[in-house]
Design brief:
By secondary structure, the protein is mainly alpha-helical. It has two domains: 7-116, Tyrosine recombinase, N-terminal domain (DNA polymerase, domain 1), CATH 1.10.150; 128-308, Intergrase catalytic core (hpI Integrase, Chain A, Orthogonal Bundle). The protein has helices spanning 11-20, 26-45, 58-71, 82-101, 119-122, 128-135, 143-158, 162-166, 203-215, 239-252, 261-274, 279-286, 291-294, 296-312; strands spanning 185-190, 196-201. Helix 1 packs antiparallel against helix 2, helix 7 (143-158) runs antiparallel to helix 9 and helix 7 (143-158) crosses helix 11. The chain is globular. Keywords: DNA integration, DNA recombination, DNA-binding. Residues 121-310 form the Tyr recombinase domain. Residues 5-100 form the Core-binding (CB) domain.
Length: 320
């Protein structure tokens, strides 16, 4: 059906739909809102702020793609990378899917093609030696150093997303009270899209979590990882604080590459694959809905195998 409401007025109902029917996290909803604000802002720039869904054409879509690729600059004055462009396009595609689900005439979401990225740009991961360098940076005689060490140990042990780690509570760690030093612990979490999955905490990560929990005995906060700024019940450490900590730690460890909390998730998956884990298992451990999402890690391991072949076998002269 044709709808008498301009696209810009569909954004709030779309966000409600994301929460109630799609079960998307608050973080995803905020991101969609941010990305779609750029789209509706562009509609205003080009004099199309009253454009209806059924009037949205492939020409509009192409012009918008050119805008985010060539004209739009972020607050720091830089142009969007292809990866960043895709975030905006994915949000637009989700909006078009919403129109289809609501029987509102508009462009099919399949018309939104994502920008091509080099496979090497998709995944950044750490070698085990790089992880150890970062872990050795912390002064674990201090509460902050102990907390941050426990965070990175848990990231690498579990493959958690940062939003999942931040939302953990103290009471979820009650199983660590048995103090077994050789046990891998299982923990059920609610991940992206409110999907329940099991993560695993290695004996080493468990030991660091125990030490951290013992050091924060003074706090009544229900959050597992807490800030040092106050001691109230709402003192949950923010995702931004963890991002800053990880980035600073990588610099202090002498790593030249950009390292984020998600880099640890990539490193976790790549390490599993390199040691023989199958894609389906990794898919479940990461909480990917589709194995195609997980297959991106094969590009990394395949490249590493090629490098090994070229170094130790390929190109050598054979003596007769």
């Amino acid at each position: 059906m044709k709808n008498g409401i301009p696209i810009s007025e569909h954004i709030l109902p779309f966000l409600d739909y994301c929460e109630v029917e799609k079960g998307l996290s608050n973080n995803t909803q905020r991101n969609y809102n941010q990305y779609l604000r750029l789209f509706t802002g562009w509609l205003k720039i080009v004099g199309q702020e009253k454009l209806f869904p059924h009037e949205f054409t492939t020409k509009h879509l192409w012009d918008y793609r050119l805008y985010i690729a060539r004209k739009y600059q972020n607050p720091k004055g830089g142009f969007l990378s292809k990866k960043s462009q895709n975030y905006y396009l994915i949000a637009l595609r989700a909006l078009l899917n919403y129109f289809a689900d609501r029987d509102i005439d508009s462009l099919p979401s399949s018309k939104v093609k994502l920008a091509k990225q080099k496979s090497d740009d998709n995944i950044s991961f750490l070698e085990a030696s790089d992880v150890e360098k970062m872990l050795s940076i912390f002064d674990t005689d201090t509460f902050k150093g102990l907390r941050d060490r426990a965070i990175l140990e848990l990231f690498f042990s579990s493959g958690l997303r940062i939003s999942e780690l931040v939302s953990l509570n103290v009471d979820q760690m009650s199983m660590l009270s048995d103090k077994k030093t050789d046990k891998t612990y299982e923990l059920s979490i609610v991940g992206k899209g409110r999907q329940v999955r099991t993560i695993f905490i290695s004996p080493r990560a468990a030991q660091w979590l125990r030490r951290y929990l013992a050091a924060r005995h003074y706090s009544l906060a229900k959050a597992l990882f807490i800030s040092l700024k106050s001691k109230d019940d709402e003192n949950r450490l923010s995702a931004r604080s963890i991002q800053v900590m990880v980035s600073k730690c990588a610099r202090l460890a002498g790593l030249s590459k950009k390292v984020t909390p998600h880099t640890f998730r990539h490193s976790y998956a790549t390490d599993l694959l390199a040691h023989g884990a199958d894609l389906r298992s990794i898919q479940e451990l990461l909480g990917h809905k589709n194995v195609a999402t997980t297959q991106v890690y094969t590009h990394i391991t395949n490249k590493r195998l090629r490098d090994v072949h070229e170094k130790f076998h390929g190109g050598r002269d054979m003596k007769s």
